[in-house]
Each structure stands twice: as structure tokens, then as C-alpha cells.
Amino acid sequence: MRILGALLITLIITAHLAAQDQHRAVAERLKDQALTDMASYEMLKELTSTAGHRLSGSVGYEKAVRWAQQRLTDAGADSVWTEPVMVPHWERGPIEKAFARSGKRTVELTVCALGGSVGTEKNGVTGRVIEVRSFEEVRALGEKARGAIIFFNRPFDRTRVNTGEAYGGAVNQRSSGAIEAAKVGAAGVLVRSMTNAIDDEPHTGMMRYDPAVPKIPAAAVSTLDADALSAMIRGGSDITVTLRLSARSFPDVLSSNVIAEIRGSEHPDQIVLVGGHLDAWDKGTGAHDDGSGVAQSIQVIRLMKKLGLRPKRTIRVVLFANEENGLKGALAYAAREQNTRERHIAAIESDAGGFMPRGFGVTADSASFARLSRYAALLEVAGAGRVTAGGGGADIGPLKPFGTALIGLSPESQRYFDYHHSNHDTIDKVHPRELELGAVAMAILAWAIAEDGL
Ligand SMILES: [Zn+2]
Questions:
Q1: Which DSSP string do the residues of 343-390 spell out, in sequence order?
Q2: Is the separation of the CB atoms in 19 and 452 below 8 Å?
Q3: CATH class of domain segment(s) 26-90+251-452
Q4: How close is the Cα of 184 to the center of ligand 1, in Å?
Q5: From ligand 1's centre to the CA of 55, what distance in Å?
Q6: CB of 299 within 8 A of CB of 293?
Q7: Average of pLDDT values for 423-437?
């Protein structure tokens, strides 16, 4: 009996090692194919030049939908389809200007409307500018804030090595600043751009309103001009700011998520999702955010088809609509999970830029996390062996209640926010080999999970 038990254990270990060896061989082939073809970069070049600006509700987004369907078909996916979703439609329009006045001196500030902001009257809104660094400071202003322009100027924490953490520590000024300022009667909001870079480029991004307080206009100001305005405020009293924006919202628009898959040979109802978001801000061409994730996801299917790999479980690419200003695509996709026999065992999102992959951040139960951690050595084939707890992505987040393991590609983070949501986010900032290695890392992980289960 004891001999039989020992034999069984030996067999299990041998089978496990054999599977690891097979994964390793597949991983090497995926890497070699990707680094030979460099197809992710070619696709990203196409997407950013043919669709360009592709914010929800725009003509560019619908061009991107058609482009993605075509490229997924070319990649050899077993099926390609779209699913409808209503999305917001907001446009910044041609005017975004701001001026700071101190006595007779007038300084122009480089600004851009935050996504979702209301516009101003033709002559803009003018008020005394008050600099703050926190919502507590705003609340403490009381009556002084009435009619003022509140200037949120808390910078990124430069001591954070992971710039995503610095972003997380500053971004509430952009997302909720207009609500907090409106509560104390302010007339408008300027927010320091969400970046470590000190330059003259404003960075847009999502902001919210609260129906209980007035909607006041909100704009991002470049970090150079944020520093200049702050110096003006320190140097004198009664500095006023005028803000002019032509932004406006239109009725929601019918749009779509783009989906494609390779059907699993043994467990087709078990899904390993790979994805990113197809929309992008109307600044730059969304090369890193999130054209990179789109190109890498399509490449996962392309590589598998090219190498004749058929996974045991279904590998599905989802290119989500409207991540940037509403998350409607992600919510619509997760809602369908209730009405289907399918089960998403894991979802892998690339939405942190097309930089050199370092690993994956995982939000899952401890057993799944332990199993995923065992792929670290395998993922080193793409230089992406760092598997850490915590992470995922905005688009896959709504799958959490279904027990899906949420996995975010973690690329090198130092440059991401230099470009993020600004005119700097263009193809020339993407390194072809780094982008490709991100796709390889995603393909290796998707393959291993689709073969082994989770
Ligand atoms: Zn993004």
C-alpha cells in the first residue's frame, strides 16, 4: 500500500513537472514568434493612425471598433462579435483657456477641460483663486470660497517608486474636486495635472458631479503653470483667474464592446479573459492608454493561432468600450455573466502602458494566488516574473463578484504618467520590443491558466 502511495505521489509530481516543461516550451515559442513578427507594434501603429482620437461617442471610436473586428478576424479567432452598450458622449470643443491676473499683470495658463466638465459662458468664469491641497482645506474655507476658483495643487508623492501609487494618492482632486468646491459655493476648479513630469502639458481625465450641488467647470493645468500660479499666489494677494471652456455633453450613444475567442477544446464554458479598453481620451492618440493593451490582446489570439495552439479552456479577448469616462462597457460585459453558463475563471487586463513588463498584480482568493505565483519562473521567459498580491484593472473589476481571479499586467511604471491622458501619449513613446514582451507575458499566462485551470 505504502509503495502504491509513493508511486502515486511520484506520478503526480512527474505529471506536474511534465506540464511545466510543456508550458516552458510553449512560452519559448510564443516569445520567439512575437519578437520575430513584432505584430503588436504594427497593430498599434495602425490603430493610432486610423482611429486616432477615439473617446466614447466619437466617430473615431466606431472606426476603432471596425478596425479591431478586422484585426481579430485576421488573427484567426474562432469567432468575432460585438455587443451593444450605451455610452456617454462628451466633447471638449475648441476653446479651453485660462488667465491669471495680479494687478495689471496677466499670465496665460495652459489648461484643458477635465472629461465630463460643463462649459462656461462665452466670457468665461472669473473669481479670486484659492490654492488648496486637500478637501479638508476646501471645507475649512467656508464663506471665503463663494464665487472663487479653487486651485487643487497637491502634487504626486515623488517618493513613491510605483507611480501608480502616486497617481492614486492625488487623483481624488481631479475626480471629486469640482464636487467639494461646489459644496462651498466655488465658481470653478483648476487641478494640477496628474503627473510627475514638470512641463507645459495639461493632462485630462474623468471627473464627477454630484446632483445635489451645482455643476461647476473644471480644468487641468500643466504642472509648470501650476507651479507658476502657486508662486503668484504666494507673492501677492487678490489673484484672479478666468476660465473659458467650450465643453459640453450630448445624449448617450449606442456603441459596442468588441469580443473574440479561441474556443477551449475540453472546457469551452470556462473562460480566460484577456483585454484592454478600446476607447481613449481625445488628447494624443491613446498609444499607451490603452492602444497598447488592445494590440497586445489581439496579439495573444494571433500568436496562438499562428503556432497552432488550442487551449483546453476558452481564451477570449474583450476590448471594452468607455473605460475612460463611464466604464459602461465593463459593466455591460459583467452583467451578462448572470445569464450564461460560462464562468470566467481569470481575467487578465493590460491597462498600465506598453512598457517593459515586470509581472502581474493579482486579486484572487489565496489558493488561486498561490497557484498563479507558481508561474513566476515561466513568466520570466518574457521578463515578467513578479507576481504580486493586489491589482487587476478597471474593466475587469466588475467581474469580481463572480469569483474571477483579476490579473493586471504590471509594466515598468516610471514614464506612464508623463504621457497619460495628454498629447504626449503617442506611438513614438512606445518601444516596440517592450510592447511585444507585454503581449508575450499575457499569452504565456493565458495559455498556462487555460491549460491547467485555476
Ligand atoms: Zn486606460
A1: EEEEEEE--S-SS-EEEEEEES-HHHHHHHHTTHHHHGGGT--EEEES
A2: yes
A3: alpha beta
A4: 32
A5: 12
A6: no
A7: 98
Determine the Cα–Cα distance for residues 271 and 449; give it in Å rounded to an integer. 10
Residues β-bridged to residue 275: 318, 349
> How many residues comprise the chain?
454
Rounding to the nearest 10 degrees, give the CA dihedral for residues 106, 109, 112, 118.
-30
Distance 351 CA to ligand 1 centre (A): 5
CA 378 to CA 392: how far, in whole Å?
20
Chain segment 329-367, per-residue pLDDT in tens = 999 999 998 888 899 999 999 999 999 999 999 999 999
Would you kindly state where each structural domain of the chain is located, as residue ranges? Answer: 26-90+251-452, 94-246
Question: What are the grid coordinates assigned to 371, written together?
Answer: 497557484
Mean pLDDT of the region 164-187: 97
CATH of domain 94-246: 3.50.30.30
The predicted model gives 163-177 an average pLDDT of: 97
CB 247 within 8 A of CB 92: yes
Q: Which residues belong to the active site?
A: 323
The DSSP annotation for 428-442 comes to: GGS-HHHHHHHHHHH
CA of 115 relative to ligand 1 center, distance in Å: 14
Is 60 exceeded by the pLDDT of residue 89? Answer: yes
Cell of 341: 453558463
Which residues lie near ion ligand 1 (Cβ < 5 Å)?
289-290, 351
Report d(CA 56, CA 63) in Å as an integer.
Answer: 11
Q: What is the pLDDT of residues 208-239, one digit of tens each?
A: 999 999 999 999 999 999 999 999 999 987 89
DSSP reduced 3-state for 149: strand
Cell triple for 348: 487578465
Nearest of 425, 437, 438 to residue 47 by alpha carbon: 425
Poorest-pLDDT segment among 16-30, 268-282, 285-299, 331-345: 16-30
Q: What type of residue is 185?
A: G
Residue type, 418: D
| Centre of ligand 1 from the C-alpha of residue 149, in Å | 29
Taking the alpha carbons of 78, 324, 290, 376 in that order, is the dihedral positive or negative?
A: negative
